[in-house]
Amino acid sequence: MAIKWYGFWRSLASNRIRTALALKNLQAEEVSINLLQGQQHGDDYRKVNPQRVVPALVVDGAPPLFQSLAILEYLDETKPEPPLLPRDARGRARVRGLAQIIACDTHPMIVPRIRNYLEKELKIDEPARNRWAQNWIVEGLKAVESHLANEPETGRYCHGDAPTIADICVVSQVFGAQFFKADTSGIPTVMRIFNECMKLDAFDRAAPLKQPGAPKELTH
Fold first, then answer.
1. Closest among 148, 137, 151, 157 to 188, alpha carbons compared
2. Tens digit of pLDDT for each residue in 43-101?
């Protein structure tokens, strides 16, 4: 299986794919699309992903797959070991729900196209834009925290004692919290699980600052 995918070092959605590929021990060629320079708006990339976002994943020359959660499940279905979803239906639903709090409800509030609109169309200054990002990051992670702290299925990781799609998404959003210097003191269970995940080589190697083109320090 020949895998080529499009991402960016600081893209949280790209971080999810990078982590999953590492967990599955899949070799892949990553093509960097510099979101800060607007490369996603170029004609060449528009043909890859008309939405002009990353990631996009190409397998054996087939049409690109898109949206991080869909790609994660594709990778899990085509290379089942190690599994990223529980075997039971309720467990899968819980893991998907936790992942969707991050990928569908939280992360979209802080992506570049939203921040650019706040700046250029609504004329909102940088301090206010940063407060916007901090608010939505913390709100989403607090919701996850409540589930993790109060539900018996939580173990070493978000669901039991093996990492799942939920952990991949939660870790990516903690990186987002670090980008924007959001207060994580109110999410101790999330941070415990984040630290457990970062002990694993796959999560560590996928960290934003360890990617080509990344700066020495995290900034928003």
1. 148
2. 999 999 999 999 999 999 999 999 999 999 999 999 999 999 999 999 999 999 999 99
**Is residue 83 within 8 Å of residue 76, measured between CB atoms?**
yes
CA separation for the pair 114, 121 (Å, rounded): 10
Distance CA 55, CA 66 (A): 6
Residues spanned by CATH 1.20.1050.10 within the chain? Answer: 89-209
Element (H, E) at 130: helix 126-150
CA 92 to chain CA centroid, nearest Å:
18
CATH H superfamily, domain 3-81: Glutaredoxin (3.40.30.10)
The CATH T-level fold of domain 89-209 is Glutathione S-transferase Yfyf (Class Pi); Chain A, domain 2 (1.20.1050)
Peptide bond into 55 cis (omega under 30): yes
* Residues carrying CATH 3.40.30.10, the chain: 3-81
Q: How far is CA 205 from CA 5, 9, 44, in A?
A: 17, 12, 29
Closest C-alpha among 151, 152, 183, 148 to residue 167: 148
Does the pTM exceed 0.85?
Answer: yes
- Quote the tokens at residue 209: 């600052």
